[in-house]
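HUMAN: Spend a minute on the protein record below and explain its fold to me.
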Amino acid sequence: MAASLTAQVNQRLACARMLHTDLASARSPVHKRALLDACLFHLLCGYQFYIKELASYYGVKYVQGLKSETDAAQALSQLDKHPAEIQELCNLAELPNSWLSQLRGLYDDVWAMPGKVSAIDANAIAVTNLDAQRLPELDDELIAQFCRQFQELVNRHRETSVEC
């Protein structure tokens, strides 16, 4: 199963890179936004498959149910395994300015409801959550950075696992 998961990770990264190259020839701002959103989708999908790949490599039998690096860490903990790769992913997920946190935040923003001011709120003072993560502007350069950092992480982890 790990081989097919590896292929899924590689395929999703390839899709994101391919869509990224298409950004330069976007026909309109809407087309560009569609390509950026598609890149986010493929990167996050690849990341989800990568979590499953790592968990499978370390002996988790039922990886379909894993939704996050925390789920993988818990499943591996039940096997009395605590791989450094999963811990690194957990650390990345906890850091608000990491590429992973930014990727997830930007993906979640795709699904956010547009803000509307209701008649009741029209006279209210706006409240801003100062602890909320400030996301960078989604653009070509950021997608390239996400692709590069994710690929580097995967390459480094796979290189280490092959050496063992």
